[in-house]
Amino acid sequence: MSKTASENYEYQGFEQGPIRPPSEAGSLLIRITRNCPWNRCTFCPVYKGSDFSLRLMEHVMEDINRVHRYVLEIRACASKNGKVYPADIERLCGFEGKGDRAALNAALNWANSGMRSIFLQDANSLIIKPERLIAILDHLKHCFPWVARITSYARSHTIARISDGHLQSMALAGLSRIHIGMETGSDKVLSRIKKGVDKKTHIAAGKKVKQAGMELSEYIMPGLGGRELSREHALESADALNQINPDFIRLRTLAIPSHVELYEEYRKGEFQKLSDLETVRELLIFLEALDGITSTIKSDHILNLFENLEGQYPQDKEKMVGIIKSFLALAPMEQVFFQVGRRMGLFRTLADMGDNTKRSHVENACTRADIRPDNVDEAINELMKRFI
Known about the structure:
This protein is an alpha/beta fold and 388 residues long. Helix content is 45%, strand content 11%. The chain has helices at residues 57-81, 86-93, 101-112, 130-143, 156-161, 164-172, 187-192, 199-211, 230-244, 261-267, 276-289, 317-328, 332-343, 356-369, 376-384; strands spanning 28-31, 33-34, 53-54, 117-121, 149-153, 175-183, 215-220, 248-251, 296-298, 311-312. The two termini are 26 Å apart. The relative contact order is 0.09.
């Protein structure tokens, strides 16, 4: 049973949630809520079986305070000769009380990344009362005034219910970027995956974020409509994004692990998963339909076939469309080599197939496993399970 009220217990030390966007790899992670308040999306494996709860404000503030104290100590150590030695770390381990190795590790990792950004966890930090979030943002800026970016995940449904005034106050307090999992702009697909939101609300929420003065990252999931709704998924998603004009459009190709609800539909034949080639063709329709925007496309996830599918509209549109068309123009076995090489981590771009050493490794792997155009998707599905 989900919990919407804060749990009442003693502070147990610094906490971190299970995920963050790839673009926040160098960010300090500050956990405001636990898990996901919606938690019904059929494709998502992350928070299933976990209750949602709000963390007590004083616990969040103490997390910030402890990291702050460690950061000051780390800076003091580094100021002597630019380095933090193992002996310094061991001394810092006893600097605080119970449970703070996690806070020290967070501070060390953040210091190693330059301490430029902070990400608020978990799945929907904006669900807490605006006044509380603003107080947390104020405290973060007080402790870490040099930070350039504070970001968070949020649901469109939640954003749509927050007043414009409160959103603007959050932006003024330092919240500078919102990550929203749109996944699709198709109402049919949104209903099927139990997203709990419609296209109209996605558009309204995206516009509200932009109007508040915050950057907006919208996530789209190629393949989510399956074979039946592939074209609609591509066109409706592009139409929603054309109306929003987000700062970033981030691609996350659908994968279906065996422990999500969508897998049962897939196993029963109720959902027909796209092949890699079909997903590429869907992606081409999507990219060509994006129009009148200044968004930057990001393909920053290993599940995506094209890592270098990146650029800003409108000036880089033809370049990105060209990457897709170049792949589709390859001979079938050449396509297989790139698909397998990419998921093995050997190829990042089509040009990498010109590296004879890497190519030989991929060709040998395909020969040993007898991977061909007619069975490549089975092999790809197995390789992709490592990254889910």
